[in-house]
């Protein structure tokens, strides 16, 4: 098959629908009818989220492989489910493809999706495959489930709670800058950063663990910790104090920032697409969580304070500054 | 507000998220957290479907208003839920917008969506608003619910069943041709056809009614009855015999076809986007359905036959021809 025209929409769907069900017990009808038919788990809350990725806005096919793009298109949705404390279950995938798209590109795009779905036991149960006059567009919608007692919203943070993040922050944004600048392949430090950007791992297991351990609020870090801290503070009507010296940065990020002439912390505060989690928790419960899971990749970065204090960053000299959201904003007015 | 830049992504979301919940009892968290949190109805099967509409492929902003486009973007998804016998429940909406998009266009797009969601008691519980370098893209994913006993798939048709359609067929395709040709406004016959194309009404109530009455298979008519008959025949491993003289055509379609120099039946057989339903049913159950609902807008158009007979059309002279799917196929090789 040399072109989408030769393969046709229905031939394409026949190829794509293979190996899409990882949990057969919950799927009555997958791809191939008007709608998927699914068996929900009794007594669980259902979660639903969607994300759209647009060529030249969210990705550039000269710096990502189709496989990586497929992986990421699913990952960003699983990250939203993780941030509620839930388990992802089913995905529907829409793709708009230019007529010139090589069929292999589409097959590899779906291979990346199927890989991450297999890894997280998510089923691809439907979708839409259409043509596009300009550029590739991918939309994924994902359902999830959560025990009512384990649901974590953004709005439950209480003064006195600790503020904790998973993993390292800022790696993805530095990875994007390296990709955009080009000629990064010779630098060992660049690989983990570029990987963090191209194939972020959604923190589903950690999200479920900290939800069960009593997280009072949670958000995935898609727009930089400054933005997410403001979102939690606003939704919970609290203040948040972060400590610059406690924000976890990969050693490679520090190397990259030196090379790029930037401050590593800025990537963590304002960079996008880390897809780590930030959560708040009563200090005693956090201590118990750490005692039970000593190897947990989490770092305390601050405290929840009264709303009047706002969202602040305390630098290593003890200076306090207001921390504003400066994450990515589609349609933002240029400064 | 004069531009999306002034309003910004988050300002836009604040406007859009008003009046999005029509059934509060099933929504724990709507727009504004990482994912929507929903209460499923116990013991029902969950349905999930998605459709993407791309500017210049699926719609043209010179021939549709944003309100109509929003209405249709939801309608096509509700039609898929209707075709399973289900009730639509929740929608998530992604839109990719060029920077030059007037904010009023977006507001009116959402007004159209909110109108049909209100009409069918569907909640808009989330979405994604991103920028687009070229043209508007809308993706909607909708969940639904159905009693297990009322689920209707494409695969249950049995020889001896009647084949029935709702409403009239072909109107939407003729409406599209009129819109494309332009200068249709002076013709009274054009208005219902253009309306059928721009704001199709999903047959949710009829779908639920015929499902409960024992429909053995069902499909929504998105690609012409020839295509849907072939899909049901293939999924059910049966043949289908349609009678040309029985296919319901609007009087306005006949007038339009005369004006356009076309055969009205061709619009019904091969035209797209009617979003009516075609279903099969044991004749005794169909008679009982009609007896209980004498005003039902349904028409018997054929019979289910043995697979060996294939999918055929019997014309008014009694001539039998094989009926092939010729509906819209993205990426189809040109003839």
Query: Over the alpha carbons, how many angstroms does the gyration radius of chain A reach?
Result: 21 Å
Order of helices and strands of chain A: HEEEHEHEEEHHHEHEHHEHEEE
Domain unit count of chain A = 2
Query: Which overall shape of chain A is indicated by the principal axes computed on the Cα atoms?
Result: globular
Helix tally of chain A equals: 10
- CATH architecture term of the largest domain in chain A: Alpha-Beta Complex
The chain pair with the largest interface is: A-B, 78 and 78 residues
Biggest sheet strand line-up of chain A? 8-10-7-11-9-12-13
- Tally of DSSP β-strands of chain A: 13
Largest sheet of chain A: 7 strands, mixed
- Helix percentage range of chain A: 25-40%
Helix-strand category of chain A: alpha+beta
CATH first level of the largest domain in chain A? Alpha Beta
Weakly predicted, low-confidence segments of chain A:
none
CATH superfamily heading of the largest domain in chain A: PurM-like C-terminal domain
Portion in strands of chain A: 15-25%
Describe the protein's architecture and organization.
The structure is a homodimer of 335-residue chains. Chain A is of the alpha+beta class and 335 residues long. Helix content of chain A is 34%, strand content 24%. Chain A has ten helices and 13 strands. In chain A, α2 runs parallel beside α3 and α4 (171-181) packs across α5. The longest helix of chain A has 17 residues, at 66-82. The model of chain A has no long low-confidence stretch (mean pLDDT 94). Chains A and B meet through α1, β2, β3, α2 and β4 of A and α1, β2, β3, α2 and β4 of B.
